[in-house]
Every structure is written in structure tokens, then in C-alpha cells.
Design goal:
single chain; 363 residues; alpha/beta; four-stranded mixed β-sheet; 17 strands; binds 6-aminohexanamide
């Protein structure tokens, strides 16, 4: 029987580990909704299965599936991936799933943030989102881990931590009135500290150009190690991403982390613009209240949206000439890991990428 805990992790001696710390397993969800994934999710399911297989070479993977898709997912998943029925509205485990925290004895707890589909009725990406909002609680129950229900809206993709007291986020997302309109910046910062256990919150301005999440940091920048940050970049000053990345670079260059370090920034050049084709747009069902997928629209493609697993890191590949360069730019700062890339266009078409569809459970 798992408990709903009063209080918050910090005062109980818990903190959010960095993603590169050892994992017990990875959690994912299964894509199927036809107003977000083309052709009823079939091409995305192939891409999700490839991501799960890549991670499963390093650590256990569990994928949560709506009842009607159980048999299909079980057939498509490698046999060593655990498939469980877990009702959901869409497939973004990073955002609706749990954030795990640990204490010095290695005990585990879950933060169950409020989830409102990236903006609720004021710009959210679909309605309803009630099943998504129960995912973290169900994972906590399955793993028999006690849970904090955070009394504010937050998605896992909107924060990154270095595991040593520093958190990275964006103002565009966390200060967006469609998340926590009654909280000031200072109150949000205080809440982040109480729940993740960090001492220092570093605020970037905006997320990647055309990111439908209101600027999640996990598509823009991430820690590679304490003191080292990867940032999506473009050398093209006329590209709409340039001023966003330049502003982030300027801020990162001035920040000091919780350990008193200046940050080293590794620029990772974005792929050339990736545009939704006619055929891709036509494959998505049009429904009231769903985010439109229009032919000709640029997608928010970034190599920063990768995932650390035990002994490895899994990167998105877009079939772009920057795919290999991204891995080589990061390799020196992710030592001792195998760097893998898997086809990610179909995941990108749903509005996110590999980091957004995964969630680590610490060892
Ligand atoms: O960026 C993420 N963490 C999730 C993207 C969600 C897109 C929903 N269509």
C-alpha cells in the first residue's frame, strides 16, 4: 500500500537525481491517438518500439498501454520490454509521469505534479487529460513507492537538474499564465526548490522555435555533467531559432551553478528545418481542440531531446547531415557511454522527442 505524503521532498531529505545517475528502469507510454499521430499512430509505434529496444539494451523498460492497444503493443515490443495496461490520453511519459526523488539511504519517492496537457483550456494540446493526470499515481502504485501530490502544474520536460543542486528551466513555460497563473516567479522558484531539492534555479527565456509545449527546456538545453550544458544552436543568424539560442547562450555564460561553478556551454547545431509534408498532415485526424498538424509547418527539431540510460544515451536521428555531428559534439562530454541514435521523425510529428517519451526511475 503506497502512501500519499504530506509535506514536500526537501524537508524529508529527498532530492531529484540527475538523469545520468543509475536507473532501475525506464518508463514509456504507447502512442495511438489519431488526432496527434498520423495513421492511427502506426508509424509512431514503430519509432517508439525502436526507442524502447535501444534503451532495453541498457536497462529494463516498461511501457504503459491503453487496454485496446495492449495486444498490438505486446506484439510490436521486443519480448524483454514489460508491457502493462496503464490508461493514458497520449504518450508523453516525461510530462505526465512521475518525477522520482531519492534520499541518502537510496529510498525512493514520487512527485506527482498536476498535469493540464500543456496549458489546460487556455492553449492546452487536448481535452480531456484526466487519464494522463493519473499516470504518475499509477506508476507509484505499481512500484509501491510513496507519493507527493504537488499542488501546482508542472511537466517533467520543463525542468532539468544536475543532481548537485541546480535546476534549469524557461520563463516561457513556467511563467506562462496557462500553467500556474496565481503563482509569482519567486513562488514558483520556491516550489521548485521544495520539491526537487535544488538550491539554484537558472532561468532561460524561451524554448525552441515552434515548440508546442510553451517552451520546454528539454528541447533547448540540458546538463551533460554538473557545470556542462548542451544548447541547441544554429549558425544561421536569419533563422528564427538564432535569437532564442543566442539569448540562452548569453544567460548561460553569466550563470553560476549551485556549486559556484561557471557553466561550460556545448553548442549542438540543430538539423536543417524539418517541415510537415502533405502526406504526413493528411494522415492526422482533424478534431476540435486538438493541436493542428499542417503541411508546410516547421517542427521543433532538436538533438537536445535525447535520453541518458545506464551506459548509454539515445539520440533522435532525423536523416539530416547534422545527425552525426550532434553525437560527435557531445561525445567528449558524455564519456563511458554508448551513443545510439534512432529514427525520430515520427516522434517529432507528434510534437516532442525521445526525452519527452521517456522517464527514468532511479536505482
Ligand atoms: O516536449 C515534451 N516534453 C512533450 C511534447 C508533447 C507534445 C504533445 N503533442
Amino acid at each position: 500500500m503506497t502512501r500519499l505524503l504530506a509535506g514536500a521532498p526537501l524537508s524529508d531529505g529527498y532530492r531529484m537525481p540527475a538523469e545520468w545517475e543509475p536507473h532501475r528502469r525506464t518508463w514509456m507510454l504507447w502512442p495511438e491517438r489519431p488526432d496527434n499521430w498520423r495513421m492511427g499512430g502506426k508509424p509512431a509505434q514503430v519509432a517508439f518500439a525502436a526507442v524502447a529496444a535501444a534503451i532495453a539494451a541498457f536497462e529494463p523498460v516498461t511501457i504503459g498501454v491503453n487496454r485496446d492497444q495492449y495486444q498490438n503493443a505486446r506484439e510490436m515490443m521486443p519480448h524483454d520490454v514489460r508491457v502493462v495496461e496503464l490508461a493514458n490520453n497520449d504518450a508523453w511519459m516525461r510530462d505526465c509521469g512521475p518525477t522520482f526523488v531519492t534520499d541518502l539511504s537510496g529510498n525512493l519517492r514520487v512527485i506527482d505534479w498536476e498535469f493540464n496537457a500543456w496549458g489546460g483550456l487556455a492553449g492546452g494540446l487536448y481535452f480531456p487529460w484526466d487519464r494522463d493526470d493519473q499516470v504518475a499515481r499509477k506508476v507509484a502504485d505499481l512500484e509501491e513507492v510513496d507519493r507527493y501530490r504537488a499542488p501546482f502544474v508542472l511537466e517533467g520536460g520543463s525542468i532539468h537538474v544536475d543532481g548537485q543542486g541546480t535546476l534549469l528551466t524557461t520563463e516561457e513555460c513556467l511563467l506562462n499564465p496557462n500553467r500556474n497563473p496565481s503563482m509569482s516567479k519567486a513562488e514558483i522558484e520556491e516550489a521548485l526548490k521544495r520539491y526537487t531539492g535544488v538550491k539554484t534555479v537558472l532561468w532561460l527565456s524561451a524554448g525552441v522555435y515552434r515548440d508546442e509545449t510553451s517552451g520546454h527546456v528539454d528541447n533547448l538545453a540540458c546538463f551533460l555533467q554538473p557545470g556542462i550544458v548542451a544548447l541547441t544552436w544554429t549558425d544561421d543568424h536569419n533563422d528564427p531559432q538564432y535569437p532564442i539560442s543566442k539569448d540562452a547562450l548569453d544567460r548561460l555564460s553569466k550563470f553560476t551553478d549551485a556549486g559556484g561553478r561557471d557553466l561550460k556551454v556545448i553548442k549542438v547545431h540543430q538539423p536543417d528545418p524539418i517541415i510537415i509534408t502533405e502526406a504526413e498532415a493528411e494522415g492526422v485526424d482533424v478534431m476540435d481542440g486538438s493541436y493542428p498538424r499542417m503541411a508546410g509547418d516547421r517542427m521543433a527539431a532538436s538533438y537536445i531531446n535525447f535520453y541518458f540510460c545506464n551506459g548509454g544515451a539515445v539520440f533522435p536521428a532525423f536523416g539530416d547531415h547534422h545527425d552525426g555531428q550532434a553525437l560527435e559534439a557531445l561525445r567528449p562530454y558524455i564519456p563511458g557511454r554508448q551513443l545510439i541514435n534512432t529514427p525520430a521523425r515520427e516522434i517529432l510529428l507528434g510534437g516532442g522527442n525521445i526525452h519527452c517519451i521517456t522517464q527514468q526511475q532511479p536505482a
